[in-house]
Amino acid sequence: KINVIPLGIQSEKYHVNPLEKDHNRFALFVGRLIYYKGVIELIEALKKSHVKLIMIGEGPLKPLIEQSAETLLKKKQLILLPFQKKDTLNKYFNHCEFFILPSTHPSEAFGIVQLEAMIYAKPVISTNLPTGVPFVNQHKKTGLIVEPGNSDDLAQAMDVLWNNENLRTTYGKNAKKRCMDLFTKHQMISKTIDCLNSMIKKKDD
Fold this sequence. Notes:
This protein has helices at about 40-45, 60-70, 70-75, 85-95, 115-120, 135, 150-160, 165-180, 185-205, and strands spanning about 25-30, 55, 80, 100, 125, 145. By secondary structure, the chain is mostly helical.
């Protein structure tokens, strides 16, 4: 009765290019700075870890983030950047150690940014929401999944990936394979056509 067709990205548009600006190792968050993205919880987790984070985004929670993360910003454990042009943004995905999607509410229905990290063979830390988010990222296969709103769990997951290169490599390879197998634009179009053809066939029968 129901066919689920995941969203897909155009994989050939994600080029492997270095960042012009030299950055040390960093984890990455990209998204609007709003309530359901879990950005406040991410800041609290960052205070409990040694991970360096680049946060790219804009939104109404930016002043609160700047206030709460004043110390992190001063010691450059956190770098806040506005939204970037697509080519530049892809360079951050390509250069990061792993990607974090700490969303706390079901308003986060899928999290296509996960795919934009996975296409670059980057592991993902996401949350166990009752949506498509944990379908994209598989726990201990393509990354790690934590409970939404739990900054302790998030900090621990961040430290696990930050301190284990082999794990990052393994999860990253699995992430790219899963993205290419299930979440490309070609797959999305092909499955949509198959679904429509199946519906037409059933109607004709």
